[in-house]
Design goal:
The protein has 538 residues and is of the alpha+beta class. It is 36% helix and 18% strand. The protein is globular.
Length: 538
């Protein structure tokens, strides 16, 4: 989809621009076309319109003043964290839109070991948060997605995240204690029990769960300014295991039993297609940074060197071509507890006909949890896009079988246009499995990719021309996959403008949602169109 270039220098734009410069300073209001275009696309698509302005506040007070000024001007607001959406999560619906760049709000405001809470500004990355907490032997229960090098806590709460810690503690939202949210007119709303004078939030469920209202809302109800999360002591022990599972059904059988048993802090699995893509990347044996991280993760230099040596020797070529590799991490306060959990993992995998293999990937997942985001493109520079569904343990195998059948039916057209597919799987607490189909196809990268991928890595890749035919076929297949997920009643993260959230709600729920939106944003200016809300006429 091609964006229409616009002139940003109309009288109305100039007046709003001047007001915003007065709030955040000249250098933090961007009107150049590259910045505006970057903020008008996500990993999947470029919007038809280009935002008129990009503004970057650095405090809750500045954010509230910025939102108030935009509201008074009658413009739309597109809140943006690190830009990792692939569902149209923040793209503009018209040119009278201001993009809120929240990455300057990157301060950790308070770490309280006494109350076991941490409060951060919305633009803090998961990596920065974990590094700060680790120095005190702490972490949040859910502690980030694999994109946490750039992904922000505010974005993770607005869109929801899965991965690290999710096997025990669920999504990013389930670690949230309280929020400070700027509403569409610039008012500040604060949730939770907050201690004397409201300055020390410590407990979420004080009456109706207002915090939950803003978790997973894609920014349509308010703009996250500050987030308070629960803390826990860093687990003293961890262990890693990997298994080669013979089929997708066997893999999901094992993952479901691991989830029911509650023994894994996280799981991560791939299908043969995604394994082949991963094997095409640089060998772990030559990745000095990765091996160094493995060494430093161990509690002694000797064990670290041994672990790194095993990884270098095993490399990645230990998974059979048609196998589904499963990687599991167990953690706990005692070595005996972790050993017991891992024994149960091994028993469950064996029942499902899994064969244990070198735990290279499992170790690396924990040693380098937030790698460079070079996997946003395929190994030869292909475009990449995921889709996902959160499914019940019993329905996940059925959904996978239907998606595999869909791919078989479309194999000819996919092969003819160079489309490759794969799957990533993970567990969510004790009651859900996430199936994440991914697509690779020969199509050129865009500014969003160049902004996130390491320049040296990008320079090694081939920039391809736009491929509208293949892109349209990927879009069509994605729609079929989403329809399969809906047949099985799947849930979704980062709903954006992609998943049929509104259509899946009953009449009473829609009435409630509309009433909340009408109360908090009656002019429909906050992230118009996300979650299926209507778009006001320009």
């Amino acid at each position: 989809m091609q964006m229409r270039s616009i002139e940003h220098s109309s009288p109305a734009t100039a007046e709003l621009e001047a007001a915003l410069r007065g709030i955040v300073g000249d250098q933090h209001v961007h009107t150049d076309e590259p910045s505006r275009r970057l903020h008008s696309e996500d990993i999947w698509q470029s919007a038809e319109s280009v935002v008129a302005l990009v503004v970057a506040p650095d405090s809750t007070e500045q954010l509230a003043a910025v939102v108030r000024a935009i509201h008074d001007a009658g413009w739309a607001i597109a809140p943006r964290g690190a830009g990792m959406s692939y569902t149209g999560g923040y793209i503009p619906v018209n040119a009278r839109t201001v993009s809120l760049d929240l990455t300057r709000m990157d301060r950790i405001l308070n770490i309280s070991r006494d109350d076991m809470t941490v409060t951060v500004q919305a633009g803090v990355t998961w990596k920065a948060l974990n590094q700060a907490l680790a120095t005190q032997g702490l972490r949040t229960p859910f502690w980030g997605p694999m994109s946490g090098l750039l992904s922000t806590v505010g974005g993770g709460v607005s869109q929801l995240n899965a991965m690290f810690g999710a096997g025990h503690y669920g999504t990013s939202s389930e670690s949230v204690v309280a929020l400070s949210v700027v509403l569409a007119d610039g008012r500040l709303l604060r949730t939770g029990a907050r201690g004397p004078e409201g300055k020390a939030p410590f407990y979420r469920h004080y009456g109706p769960d207002l915090t939950g209202l803003f978790c997973g809302d894609c920014g349509v109800f308010g703009v996250k300014a500050e987030i308070t999360l629960r803390l826990m002591a860093l687990p003293a022990f961890e262990d890693h295991a990997s298994f080669s599972m013979p089929t997708g059904a066997a893999l999901l059988q094992a993952m479901a039993e691991i989830a029911r048993a509650g023994v894994a802090s996280e799981t991560c699995a791939f299908d043969p297609g995604l394994t082949a893509v991963r094997l095409a990347r640089t060998s772990l044996a030559s990745d000095v940074k990765t091996l160094g991280a493995v060494i430093s993760k161990e509690k002694s230099l000797g064990r670290g060197l041994l672990s790194a040596a095993k990884i270098a020797m095993s490399g990645r070529n230990f998974v059979e071509d048609e196998a589904f590799p499963l990687h599991v991490i167990c953690e706990g306060r005692s070595a005996a507890a972790v050993e017991s959990d891992m024994a149960e993992v091994r028993r469950i995998a064996a029942v499902a006909k899994g064969v244990e293999i070198p735990n290279t990937i499992a170790k690396v997942l924990r040693a380098t949890p937030f790698p460079a985001l070079n996997s946003m493109l395929g190994p030869d520079g292909e475009s990449w896009i995921p889709i996902h569904g959160v499914l019940s343990l019993s329905n996940a195998p059925k959904a996978l079988a239907d998606i595999q059948a869909l791919y078989e039916n479309r194999a000819g057209v996919h092969e003819a246009t160079g489309i490759k597919t794969g799957f990533l799987f993970t567990t969510m607490s004790s009651n859900a499995i996430i199936i994440e189909p991914v697509f690779y196809w020969p199509n050129g990268w865009r500014p969003i990719h160049a902004s996130a991928i390491e320049p040296a890595h990008l320079a090694r890749l081939t920039q391809r021309p736009a491929n509208p035919q293949a892109t349209a076929l990927v879009a069509e297949t994605r729609k079929h996959v989403i329809a399969i997920f809906e047949r099985y009643g799947a849930g979704h993260f980062q709903i954006g403008r992609t998943y049929p959230y509104r259509a899946s709600r009953d009449a009473a729920s829609i009435e409630l949602l509309d009433s909340i939106k009408g109360c908090l944003d009656p002019d429909l200016n906050l992230n118009p169109g996300a979650l299926g809300f209507p778009v006001a006429r320009a």
